[in-house]
Design goal:
This protein has 2 helices and 10 strands. It is of the alpha+beta class. The longest helix has 34 residues, at 2-35. It starts with a helix and ends with a strand.
Amino acid sequence: MADLNQKAQKVKFWQYLLQAINYSVFMGLIWYFASAPSVRLIEDDEAMITIAFAHAGQLREPCRMLSQEELNKLPPNMRKLDDCPRERSPVTVEASLDGELIYNESLPPPGLFGDGGVDVFYSAKISAGEHKLSLKMNDSVQIEGFNHGFEQQVRVDPAQILLVSFQKKQGFVITGGKQ
């Protein structure tokens, strides 16, 4: 019986020793992969430009007032004085950096009735330094060309992110660069 008890203690000792070795190897691997392989997303002389915003295009057609004759044809519970279609215009965004086109997209409105807002996202590496940034957007099919624009000289430092957003009242807003 004493021999069996001594054997069980030896087995337990080896189990604990092997378990400690396994944990040490596992923790060593985690430590190595958490600190050793350095990841560089951009080089020392590069920066990033990111265009990110959500915007709903203008209505494709303006609301119109219904005539008395049109109202009389409708059931009483559906008689509204105006008829406003839900469908929105596509949003076209164009971005140029130093005269070179870097982004050009026409985004249709999402949704079952084409009445949702679009999400614009674009990110790219650029060289650090002075740049001429030009942004244009059209959010109305009733207007030829672009109805929102922005052009400015910006300076971007190395490893800096130049963020471009759009606000309905202010237009294009630049964050991160030096104007």
